[in-house]
Specification:
Elements lengths: L4 E2 L18 H16 L4 E3 L9 E4 L13 E12 L2 E5 L9 E5 L2 E7 L5 E7 H14 L10 H15 L9 E2 L8
Parallel strand pairs: 1-9
Antiparallel strand pairs: 2-3, 3-4, 4-7, 5-6, 7-8
The structure holds zinc ion.
């Protein structure tokens, strides 16, 4: 089932998400919905808070990019970055920030502890686009968005677009949860 995506100013995107204690039927259903929603948007990564669930869970699939065609889809539960290496700037976008792009500096490779879709413990090194998407999605689990990591000048450039998102003035090609409008006194 395709589920609507929560947008920029939504509180759920600012919460510290809770770790999972296992994978039950409900989590399996959530995972299925997240993959379906990500593919249809389309996107290459999606974190549970983006569909309104404050859980430390994300899905990704970068195989639509030609040079990553052999990379399998991933389920990442309770991730913990245990080491980083190098730095690289790369343009990012986000399904919770429709229409926005910006250059973000992040470590170029990471060592990650996490649990897979069977809740088996894993440790692996990631670099390139995979490291990038993982870090972007893990940020979502900590209530952080890529625009928080833009340099001041870059951030100023997108402030108008952020205000428009917060006010519900945007176009998305996928179902969204419209942000609740706050009345200014
Ligand atoms: Zn995102």
């Amino acid at each position: 089932m395709i589920v609507p995506i929560n947008i920029y100013s939504d509180d759920v995107l600012r919460q510290q998400a809770l770790p999972l204690e296992g994978v039950d039927k409900e989590v399996e259903e959530l995972l299925g919905n997240m993959f379906e929603t990500m593919y249809s948007a389309p996107g290459i990564g999606l974190a549970a808070p983006q569909v309104g669930r404050s859980l430390r869970l994300l899905v990704l699939d970068i195989s639509c990019m030609r040079e990553y065609a052999n990379v399998k889809p991933m389920v990442v539960i309770n991730p913990e970055i245990v080491a980083v290496k190098g730095y690289r700037s790369m343009e990012e976008g986000c399904l919770s920030l429709p229409g926005l792009q910006g250059d973000v500096v992040r470590p170029s490779s990471i060592s990650l502890n996490y649990r897979d879709e069977h809740f088996e413990g894993q440790n692996a090194e990631f670099s390139g686009l995979l490291a990038r998407v993982l870090q972007h999605e893990i940020d979502h689990l900590d209530g952080r968005l890529f625009v928080d990591r833009l340099q001041k000048k870059e951030r100023r450039k997108v402030q108008k677009e952020l205000d428009a998102l917060a006010a519900g003035r945007f176009i998305a090609s996928y179902p969204v949860v419209l942000p609740v409008k706050v009345n200014k006194a």
